[in-house]
Amino acid sequence: MLDFNEKDIMIMLLVLISLLGVINLNKDNVGMSVVNLVSEEKNFEIYDNEINLNSLTLRQKIGQMIFVLAKVEHKDLLQNMNIGGIYFWEKNSKDVYKNEIDYFQASMEIPFFVGIDLEGCWNPFSSFKEFPAFKDVDNEQEAYRIGEEKGVLMKELGFSINFSPVVDKEDKIWGCRSFSNNVEGNSASYIRGLQNQGVIATAKHYPGNTLIGKDPHVDVAFSIVDEEDLRPFRWAINNGVKAIMINNLITSGEIDSEHKPSVVSGNVIRTLSKDFNGLILSDEVGMAGVSDFYTDERKMYIDLVNAGNDVILDFRTEPWHLYKIISIIEDGVKTGEIKEEKIDESVIKILKAKGFEVKRKV
Questions:
Q1: 296, pLDDT greater than 60
Q2: Where are the alpha helices (DSSP H) in the chain?
Q3: Would you state the pLDDT for residue 75?
Q4: Which one of 12-16, 319-323, 356-360 scores highest in mean pLDDT?
Q5: Closest Cα to residue 259, out of 302, 303, 228, 217?
Q6: CATH of 62-318, one of 3.40.50.970, 3.60.130.10, 3.30.70.360, 3.20.20.300
Q7: Nearest to 73 by CA among 314, 319, 320, 327
Q8: How do strand 46-47 and strand 50-52 relate by DSSP bridges?
Q9: At 219, is the pLDDT very low, low, confident or very high (cuts 50, 70, 90)?
């Protein structure tokens, strides 16, 4: 039998405390260390606005498909991993937005998409600029003017994409995120006003009827989609909308998501892609509507890519989580669960939306 005296026990306790301290290191720092070890050299072949897709590694291509929260302390990490887009919450002033966006974009050969929700009644710019809620917009001329005003301001601050407009026919959850009348015409006018200023508009949440029951932010939710729900998206497409966001609801009716959230349904996205060749964005995948549907997180990310999403919004920003997403998708390609051609198709669309001409040189 081992015989420990008080001194031995004290030494063992100190060692144990030290080990626990190491184990409980901030996950962000652990993630940064891991990513720094596996960072890949950027040998992007870019001449003027032409980029060679084959000069990007698989991990770098996957990075372009991810849209994350913009945390200043993660700037180097996001740049090193070639992340495609950064999302901003509310800030106190125009200068804060401009300075942070400039800081993120500095030295980037492939710039970030810079996005925000400036939409129906969510206004992250409220500390320095007011806009009317969509429910209070009376006509298409006013909708165009609001889109134009938002586009001018967003362009000035450095934003490239707005996750707006909400084109759902009804909003029974918040009561202000969609237009209260002439949803098709007002949405189309808003889109033209915004995009005429060089900011990408996003029609959401396909296939519609999203804001009528349970909130997909906090619940797995269901809806029945009819022809009327689809009309605003057709108007948006006919008016040149450059991005459409897929909702997290399980749908039936005109669009059947086959008993799973629309965002992971190939049937939903294939139906959309018949008439739309712009960017297809997932809604945020940390929402309960999709994350609670899965017991296997790996399968969720594989399904998100295979369903046809070009861009995956994931606002859980810990470096270890971001590294895990890219690793899951990379492994999916290596095991044959995802075709690399699917990754390439999405990245080509992303790079073209960022202003590049894309070539595939050997």
A1: yes
A2: 6-23, 27-38, 58-64, 75-80, 94-105, 140-157, 183-195, 227-238, 266-273, 288-291, 297-307, 319-334, 340-353
A3: 95
A4: 356-360
A5: 303
A6: 3.20.20.300
A7: 319
A8: antiparallel
A9: low
What global pTM score does this model have?
0.89
The upper half-sphere exposure of residue 79, i.e. CA atoms within 13 Å in the direction of its Cβ, equals 14
- pLDDT 10s digits, 127-147: 999 999 999 999 999 999 999
- Its sign, for the CA torsion 70, 240, 191, 106, is positive
Q: Which residues contact 110 (CB under 8 A, 6 or more apart)?
A: 44, 46, 51, 64, 82, 351, 354, 356
Fill in the amino acid letter for 178.
Answer: S
Backbone angles phi, psi at 124, to 5 degrees: -70, -10
The H or E element containing residue 162 is strand 161-162
Which residues, other chains included, contact 103 with Cβ-Cβ below 8 Å and sequence gap of 6+? Answer: 72, 75
End-to-end CA distance of the chain: 69
Rounded-to-integer distance, Cα 142 and Cα 139, Å: 6
**Residues 246/277, Cβ–Cβ less than 8 Å:** no
The answer to whether 290 and 235 have CB atoms below 8 angstroms apart is: no
Amino acid identity for residue 5 in this structure: N
User: How does pLDDT run across 70-129, given as a tens digit for each residue?
Assistant: 999 999 999 999 999 999 999 999 999 999 999 999 999 999 999 999 998 889 999 999
8 Å CB contact between 231 and 182? no
Cβ neighbours around 102 below 10 Å, total: 11
d(CA 179, CA 205): 14
Q: DSSP letter at 315?
A: -
Report the amino acid identity of residue 127.
S
CB 289 within 8 A of CB 262: no
Residue in the structure block whose two tokens are 């712009």: 278
Q: Is 9 helix (H, G, I), strand (E, B) or coil?
A: helix
The DSSP symbol for 285 reads T
